[in-house]
């Protein structure tokens, strides 16, 4: 998949996740549990309208901000402070390839983040299937673990790509 296709994939993923999430928010009660104690029992609540707005903003803004921070910001700063060996990677002859990699790699981070936010929404929906609402802590832990593994992979691939020229370090 080409670099430009990945940003399109990310944008499509955001749109689909937002549509799916907003289409089933109506299944939630007017008072939505948004925080759960370690035993899975709800201990903080909000209105369905506030939850809908927070969910939409989380799905749209958080992943988009991450993509921009990892793809757009280094373009403005020539990678200083964000990219290892920035002088080398933002040299005129490598700049376009570097920017393409950043866009592509940032898009994967955005997709992973959309997926985890949507998964948390599904957990909240499922928690409200019982009265009183109860979160499946085991599923929550699995989702967080998978996301952290994805972040580790993402960071490893990022650092490997931007290792010191010549293969050392």
What are the defining features of this structure?
single chain; 169 residues; mainly alpha; two-stranded antiparallel sheet; 5 helices; 2 strands
Q: What's the total helix number?
A: 5
| Sheet/helix structural class | mainly alpha
Low-confidence stretches: none
- Across the major sheet, the strand order is 1-2
Range of strand content = 5-15%
H-E string: HEEHHHH
> How is the biggest beta sheet arranged?
2 strands, antiparallel
Q: Estimate nothing, just give the exact number of structural domains.
A: 1
**How many beta-strand segments?**
2
Mean pLDDT across every amino acid position: 92
- How large, in whole angstroms, is the Cα Rg? 19 Å
Shape: elongated
This entry's quaternary arrangement is single chain
Distance between the termini: 29 Å
Q: Approximately how much helix is present in the residues? A: 55-70%
Description:
It is a single chain. With 169 residues, this protein is mainly α. Helices cover 67% and strands 7% of the residues. The chain has one domain (3-161). It contains five helices and two strands. A two-stranded antiparallel ribbon has the order 1-2. A hairpin with a 5-residue loop joins strand 1 and strand 2 (42-47). Helix 1 (3-24) runs antiparallel to helix 2 and helix 4 packs antiparallel against helix 5.
Question: Secondary structure elements and their pairing?
Answer:
Layout: H1 3-24, E1 31-36, E2 42-47, H2 48-77, H3 86-89, H4 95-127, H5 137-161
Antiparallel strand pairs: 1-2
């Amino acid at each position: 998949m080409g670099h430009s296709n990945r940003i399109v994939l990310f944008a499509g993923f955001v749109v689909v996740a937002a549509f799916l999430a907003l289409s089933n928010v109506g299944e939630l009660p007017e008072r939505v549990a948004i925080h759960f104690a370690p035993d899975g029992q709800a201990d903080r609540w909000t209105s369905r309208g506030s939850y809908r707005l927070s969910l939409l903003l989380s799905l749209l803004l958080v992943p988009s901000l991450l993509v921009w921070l990892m793809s757009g910001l280094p373009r403005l700063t020539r990678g200083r402070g964000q990219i290892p060996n920035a002088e080398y990677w933002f040299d005129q002859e490598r700049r376009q390839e570097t920017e393409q990699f950043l866009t592509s790699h940032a898009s994967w981070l955005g997709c992973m983040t959309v997926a985890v936010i949507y998964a948390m929404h599904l957990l909240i929906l499922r928690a409200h299937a019982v009265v009183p609402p109860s979160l499946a802590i085991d599923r929550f832990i699995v989702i967080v673990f998978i996301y952290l593994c994805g972040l580790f992979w993402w960071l490893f691939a990022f650092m490997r790509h931007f290792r010191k020229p010549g293969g050392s370090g």
